[in-house]
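Per-residue structure
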Amino acid sequence: MFTSLRLKNFKAWRDSGEMPLAPVTLLLGSNSTGKSSLIQSLLLLKQTITSPDRSIHLNLGGDEVNDYFNFGHFNDVLTQDATPRQFEISFEFGQPIRRRRPAEIARSGKFSVTYAMNSSGAAVTQECCLEGKNRSFRAVRRDRGAYSIYVGDEGQPRDKSRTFAPERSIALPSEAIQLLGLDGDAAQDLSLTIRRELENIAYLGPLRRKPERDYVWNKTRPGDLGVDGFGSINALFSSAFIKGKDVGEDIIAGVSKYLARMGVAERLEVRQLGHSTRYEIVVHRDGVVANLRDVGIGISQVLPVLTLAYYVPAGSTILLEEPEIHLHPLAQSVLAELFVEISKERKVQFIVETHSEHLFRRMQTLMAKGKVTLNNCAMYFVERNGADAKLLKLEANEYGAISNWPPKFFGDALGESRLQAELAIKYQKEMRMKNANLLG
């Protein structure tokens, strides 16, 4: 689980400051303030460490099939007028990692990386730092692309060479590992832990694909569900027709439970069309069975959210943008219950960018009921200070009341009610005067 995040000179974030993250973290704010950039920073690191090119420093995207996001050029990521012309991403993490033995050991640490642009215009790692519980390692770029390797608080580098350039930003190359001797094993283990943390990120964007009437499925198990959630269909088919611990046998039951709680369906069912390779998803509600294509768009849009919550391995981090899209108010509020309950049951972390007042208000209610504690839920408001993004941590008490809520983000409910009352009184006065004139 990611326990904190910090950005420097990354897009609108000149310096976000240390941003503590919880099992459930909500990001709120107006449009184009920088909320999505917080999520994109982690996606940038993930698509870099999953690149097939080990020597790559930073994968800014461009491959529509394999990349999560196209960041453009280095200057498109760098904050305007940044000095020096570098940006930094750092995070802390801590979660149990299963070993072959039954016991679990707690793994925690910190990773930070600074990127610059070389003379040819390519993004390069300027410095990366890997910190574990008892050891830390740094690779610092020097003249002509050579890197100095530091261990702990040592003032002098162990050595300097162009062959020591970090691989995919997070791992020291074999030449540096050999240089470190006994410390090399610790460096490799720490790099692997950081890599696993980033690999365990699952992302669902704000635009999800519309449903089809039926699908071709060749009984394959899905991998990544995709930024538009299209892979969730295969995940549901696998849950229904393939048995095995790594498939997620409870996906359909779990999805059906929350659809019922949202009041949009009683349950979900998958069906094979005859003996063909085509399958359909049907929705049961009020005694009527309908194809997914024939029900409201809200079900198909929330389906990837629910499926992903049950599909990812325990210990994963799910990044969501606008999970409430096309849902009515009650269904939006139930999403808060989903995040809280799944984070406890499956040890899954949720970092959610949302505009939903109903989701936020239900989270306050869950706090008041003691269903979620202040340690398990963090809420942030993102606003702009000129061209720069500004982060405000919303301070809640044990009853969910916010003491520092920015005014009128969710509108002015009391002001609207007061204006409606004033207009009604004005209308009644005008009608009385009109009637009096007619009688007179």
Q: What stands out?
A: DSSP finds ten helices and 19 strands in the chain. The CA atoms of residues 20 and 321 lie 19 Å apart. The chain has a mean pLDDT of 90.
